[in-house]
Design goal:
370 residues, alpha/beta, TIM Barrel, Arc Repressor Mutant, subunit A, nine-stranded mixed sheet, three-stranded antiparallel sheet, 17 strands, 41% helix, 22% strand, binds iron/sulfur cluster
Length: 370
């Protein structure tokens, strides 16, 4: 279908050194020397060149190289990928280009090379600064590896993000607080905080089923999420999205694109593409349509995604949506009455309770156009 230009590009590298016990991402443990990785990266480069030729990359403003573990594929393959990108689109400093890396495979040499080739934001999968929790998670790195990787990244990158997990088996509030405080003292600029979820068909799901692992406790997760807001807020971070904290000016522009209805192209195994025009929005994965929304459903989805962010949605956006969704204003008023949303300075914003009861908040907005 004729579609609006893609503004964001996602590239998926589905390889890891080993599989973590909780992970259900599209990735496999493949040795770094495997020719399978060579073939995959070469094919990805061809896909990028093809899309560039078709004129699909001219308006891309953010790039995200995710996985899997992109740093696991090594410096020379990453250099080939980044060189291809630089030939295929405008990879200038104003284009946010993020790469994910894990502590066990991020080297000083890699930091220098990817920086020189246009990556300007690194997102490091730390998860915790506690060795025993890292072992429980099945991570391939220690807390010291994570500290070393962050310091190495900061040799070139001002914009360094890390992921931290909360609600882990055996993780006390003090233990989680220690990881938050260490992240702050290491000087990272962005932190994503995720509660553990038990996904089907993972080793963790099997361990929960046979009683070897306790199921995550909602109250503990909520307590940890509130602790993150408190500790990081005091340190000067803003919670700009339900799970994302940034120092001013370091909010992820790529992730913000996902939450604001910006069309994106995904290349690589299981990468999602979101393509749209004013009447229709489709998501596709590996050539299969996974979502097909009409204009009403798009409007409802935009409101729902907007409420993931602390800035929420503007009155203008709600007024525009009401042409398609006549109940929208009543729904926001009901959300406010139930303490899930608040109206402030011409915007509807989520409350802390709204974020804690996210399924309720997002579900009621999405149900405006079932
Ligand atoms: S490193 Fe990340 S992508 Fe790889 S198995 Fe672990 S959680 Fe999954």
């Amino acid at each position: 279908m004729p579609h609006d230009p893609y503004k964001a590009l996602y590239l998926h590298l589905p390889f890891c050194v080993q599989r973590c016990g909780y992970c259900d991402f599209t990735t496999r443990a493949v040795p770094t020397g495997s020719t399978e990785i060579d073939e995959y990266v070469e094919d990805l480069c061809l896909q990028i060149r093809r899309k560039a030729k078709e004129g699909e990359l001219t308006e891309v403003k953010t790039i995200y190289i995710g996985g899997g573990t992109p740093s696991h594929v090594g410096t020379s393959r990453l250099s080939m990928l980044l060189y291809t990108l630089s030939l295929s689109l405008r990879l200038e400093p104003d284009v946010e280009c993020t790469m994910e890396a894990n502590p066990e495979s991020l080297t000083e040499r890699m930091v220098r090379d990817i920086w020189a080739l246009g990556v300007n934001r690194l997102s490091i999968g730390v998860q915790s600064f506690n060795d025993s929790l890292l072992e429980t998670l099945g991570r391939a790195h220690s807390a010291d590896d994570a500290r070393r990787a962050i310091v190495a990244a900061q040799e070139r990158f001002e914009n360094v993000s890390i992921d931290l997990m909360c609600g882990l088996p055996g993780q006390s509030a003090n233990n989680f607080r220690a990881s938050l405080e260490e992240a702050v003292s290491l000087g990272v600029t962005h932190i994503s905080v995720y509660p553990l979820t038990i996904e089907k068909h993972t080793p963790f799901a099997r361990m929960v089923a046979c009683g070897q692992l306790e199921e995550p406790d909602d109250d503990i997760e909520a307590e940890h999420m509130e602790l993150a807001e408190k500790v990081l807020g005091q340190a000067g971070f803003t919670r700009y999205e339900v799970a994302s904290y940034a120092r001013p000016g370091f909010e992820s522009r790529h992730n913000t694109a996902y939450w604001t209805g910006v069309p994106y192209l995904g290349l690589g195994l299981a990468a999602t593409t979101m393509t749209q025009n004013s009447n229709r929005r489709m998501r596709m994965q590996d050539g299969q349509v996974t979502d097909d929304l009409d204009a009403r459903q798009m409007a409802a989805e935009d409101l729902m995604l907007g409420m993931r962010m602390s800035r929420g949605v503007s009155d203008e956006r709600v007024a525009a949506a009401s042409a398609l969704l006549p109940d929208v204003r009543t729904t926001f008023e009901e959300l406010a009455r139930d303490g899930l949303a608040v109206h402030e300075h011409g915007r509807w914003k989520p409350t802390r309770t709204g974020w804690l009861c996210g399924n309720e908040l997002y579900g009621r907005l999405f149900n405006l156009a079932p």
